[in-house]
């Protein structure tokens, strides 16, 4: 019995050690965001002696990080919205094999899951610039929707496949059209699956860097990732505002994650297990 | 039921499928095809300067690039770090969140949290963590008598790529934990209990029951690790940008630099085409291999 | 029927969402002109001045929608310009780097030849220093014309913390021999003899060119570009080896890859570094340092053994304000107006006054302002320069050479041997020459 006790103590200790490894960088960032420059170094483990709110004022006024957070939210919500509408319609048709080409379409859509989107960076950038789509909300949202299309399609169509067809039949016999059927009947039942697709899209877009970095050039349009990347190159006499900016950009997404924790984890796990 | 669907319903279905088809085709597939087409042209990025058809020359340039070999090696290191670093850690974390440990939610949340943070923010955090003058790791090393070690690993040609794999592991361990955790849930408790009654030790139970039962989780993990490593880009771009020198280049950074720093768009598109094909081939080969070993 | 209509309508809406945004608003009659510079940091006096002038232009010219898309980060700046060119929609007014490295843009008609406009408006550009136009003169490549207006010239110089030298009782060393001699005492006292923030890879590029000027004058540059000398010949190998020896002797301190050019300034202000090698563009920033009274500006150190190159400099024209709209384009006139505004005598006169005479300018002023001490010191050295070139790689039409040399030379700080470094550079140069033969 004793042996087991020791073993489980070691187990718990390791569990705690790993928790510390994952939390410490975040803890360090949060604590440093309240410190002045001298205190950031040399007193890494201690709390600030005096809370330096000016870091946050500077992050908001000089770095304009909240505008970047807002932009990230607009892109993420927009892309999630488009994905939900467009994918649900397509997924239903494919899941129910309504069209002769349904099988083909399914393969066609899932193909995208194996392609790293940034490989298409140059054609996308050229296309966007030529059409005057840079620094505009809608084109970016559609781009993000397209990039996240295959994964959401996979999640949503496999959910719909699991729904019994009985309801469809009743509705169709009732003379219901397809559009109404999808949004009135299937949508509420498939909500968990659709929601998962939306959340996964949201997270992916919120933190996307490569396309945002090449397509968004206007300061007022930049997202969190791009703004934070820019900070590395800018003249900073004090690191406090940088930490404060990181904190302000991470907090909203952490809140979203914590509220929808099970959905997020479930969706990501399911997406990973594809195939 | 849909077999007897009216023409009108089929027409409706067509309409309903159309937006997705158009969006995906124009914004995803069309650029993908363009990549393959442009990979055969030499172009400096100036439209008025003619694109010159060069056959496979861009691909030859990609494979002859000294940095291509470095990128290949680094991708190899990424894959190995997946197997030897992320896998054991993720497996352990999965057993923690599947165990009867208290405050399980706290552990699960803390392990998974990095996954939702922007890679740029992660890069900044680690830049400071690894700061050689008074940074946390430097101070920690000093206090345990390792002060002579230069902790600026990201600035070291020898260690930069390993430092990135550690940051990468820190970010993705929670993600992979979920894969194993899903696998662990599917193991019936009765089997483990039966083994315990039979007197099998904890390690033995793990080795002879848990691991074989997790086979499909391992397969998924390997697939993700290999394809993810081939296409890795963001993490390297935000931490070292491929440097110092060319020490931490990966395929993605080469693609990016050749386009936007060297005006060598042909090379970039050839690299893009290579990446698409490579991740395709890798995932199909691995699936075939898994299917073969499952049949045995 | 109603339902079918509803379906068609909603599908059409969804399709419209995909395709509809191509219809751009054409209601406004304003001509849009974008301007791209590296000035986006309001904390810097020079950049703030630019931003104020943008605001002024917008106010005075309601018929032009001037969009400032400036980015201070060099890589992002270049990426933005290049992608706009690649998509046939080049930014209208921008910082052009000139030199052979950017010949492609001129040869392919991306950059507008403004020589005709300069002739038509004799006042514009009259006060400019003629020599500064050299890098946008492509007649050697068979392309006539003038492809931009010079921005303030620069010089790679050094800033010394006089207090540290006083404390140590050492005279401020101006030659490499003297610096080598003084280094042990400086290091002993806990200071960095010469801070070198290699996290920015252009630092190594600047250092190498400046060093080559003090050792060989512009001869080495010419020989390298003509191909007469190779990068792995003894001359260049010797220079890189020299940098490495100094690094190993502690001349540049350590952890160089952990800090950048701003870190150099921080080390000067924080009294950690006795000297920083830097450039005239930082004079304004250093003037705002808390210990400005201790700071002295001097030239880049020379070799006592090479007195003939004592006053050979890395410096000269920095970059150029150029435009991309061609005569006949609907936005040509508006673009020209923007270009003229930001390259006018008034623009620089205003800047000259705003900075209190600090820094360097591309035009000759009628009245001079008593400048700050650093500017005066800088000019004492700068004005006696006998020879001056930009970074060596700029003279080569191989676009990737600059990044290559900078990145490779930076690896001395992570322990690469000088020989490997120059061999790798030459390999790439050979490869380039072979594939463009």
Detailed description of the structure:
The complex is a heterotrimer of chains A (275), B (296) and C (437). Helix content of chain A is 73%, strand content 0%. Chain A is an all-alpha fold. In chain A, helix 3 crosses helix 14 (240-259) and helix 9 (166-173) runs antiparallel to helix 10 (178-189). Chain A is globular, with a radius of gyration of 23 Å. Chain B has one domain (39-295): Orthogonal Bundle (MetI-like fold). Chain B has a two-stranded antiparallel sheet with strand order 1-2. In chain B, helix 3 runs antiparallel to helix 4. Chain B is globular, with a radius of gyration of 24 Å. The model of chain B has no long low-confidence stretch (mean pLDDT 88). Chain C has helices spanning 2-19, 45-60, 74-86, 103-107, 115-120, 162-168, 176-188, 202-216, 219-226, 234-248, 261-269, 283-287, 332-342, 345-354, 373-382, 401-410, 418-435; strands at residues 31-36, 64-68, 93-96, 149-150, 154-155, 157-161, 192-195, 273-277, 295-299, 312-316, 320-323, 387-389. Chain C starts with a helix and ends with a helix. Chain C contains 17 helices and twelve strands. The interface between A and B is large, with 97 and 96 residues.
What attributes does this structure have?
heterotrimer, B: 296 residues, mainly alpha, MetI-like fold, two-stranded antiparallel ribbon, 13 helices, 2 strands, 1% strand, globular, C: 437 residues, alpha/beta, D-Maltodextrin-Binding Protein, domain 2, 2 domains, five-stranded mixed sheet, four-stranded mixed sheet, 17 helices, 11% strand
Could you describe the largest sheet of chain B, including whether it forms a barrel? 2 strands, antiparallel
- How many helices of chain B? 13
| Oligomeric category | heterotrimer
List unreliable stretches of 5+ residues of chain B. none
CATH homologous superfamily annotation of chain B = MetI-like
Secondary structure class of chain B reads: mainly alpha
Spans where pLDDT lies below 50 across 5 or more residues of chain C: 4-9, 11-27
Strand order of the largest sheet of chain C: 2-1-3-11-4
Largest interface: A-B, 97 and 96 residues
Using the coordinates shown, work out and report the CATH topology of the largest domain in chain C: D-Maltodextrin-Binding Protein, domain 2
